[in-house]
Amino acid sequence: MSIDDTLHKGSYLLYPDEGLADTAWPKDKELALLILNESIPQQMGALLEDIWARADHRICIDGGGNRLYRFGKESSTLDKFVPDAIVGDLDSLQDEPRLHYAQKGTAIHRYEDQDSTDFMKGLLYLDTVLRKGKGPEDCVVIVFGGLGGRLDHTLHTLKVLFYNHQQRNVVLVSEENLTFVVPRGTNRILTNAQVDGPSCGILPLAGETMLTTKGLRWNLDHQPSSFEGLMSTSNIIDDTQISIETSLPVAWTAQFRPKAL
């Protein structure tokens, strides 16, 4: 592969393997955990605990504070997971979680701007708390939620990913999916058979693109991909490295199985 390939660590950002440089955590990056307004299943508990312990920034996005609070009560870990901040227009944040976290020292930031969504507000807030001299490109953002619930919310979450992909490394994770944006050009995605796949897809959300892939059960060879035509969905991961060459940014999504406690 070309030395100009863009490397995507994928699930190794969630479960780093320090044995190899490619699979190890990028030491020059900060880690931010954002929790959106979707339920946190108990099977995500071990992953939440691990990322929480490693994160430099822990931010709930509006109603995400309710979700974390409910998860904490149900798992008897309420005092273990206290976010640094809850951010948004706060129209969804309930009084009980708000009071609890405020008493624990969580910063509550209300933004009135109606031209940006709570997810966008959370990313903008994150920029203000990065270490001095650091920018958005210096932080990996892991997002819990955003891939379930209302379809319009899911599509907007994907839009935010595409809007930010040139300056931020943002990964959406749920108990079933791992999703991130692959930029135009040649890309190399690392996969871990313990948690990734077997099913995967490449979504041409930015418009018709030309795709060439390696490492999939059904590879593409300079084939156009669009919503009106061919889309590589329900494909199968057949290698530990997937190569994607694309003329426009696309969304990579794969089945995800979080490790148990």
UniProtKB/TrEMBL annotation:
Belongs to the thiamine pyrophosphokinase family. Its EC number is 2.7.6.2. Pfam families: TPK_B1_binding, TPK_catalytic. InterPro entries: Thi_PPkinase, Thiamin_pyrophosphokinase_euk, Thiamin_PyroPKinase_B1-bd, TPK_B1-bd_sf, TPK_catalytic, TPK_catalytic_sf. The keyword Acyltransferase does not apply. This is Thiamine pyrophosphokinase. GO terms for molecular function: ATP binding; kinase activity; thiamine binding; thiamine diphosphokinase activity. Keywords: ATP-binding, Kinase, Nucleotide-binding, Transferase. It is an enzyme of class 2 (transferase). It catalyses: thiamine + ATP = thiamine diphosphate + AMP + H(+). Gene3D superfamilies: Thiamin pyrophosphokinase, catalytic domain. Pathway: Cofactor biosynthesis; thiamine diphosphate biosynthesis; thiamine diphosphate from thiamine: step 1/1. Signal peptide: none annotated. One of its GO terms (biological process) is thiamine metabolic process. Residues 185-250 form the Thiamin pyrophosphokinase thiamin-binding domain.
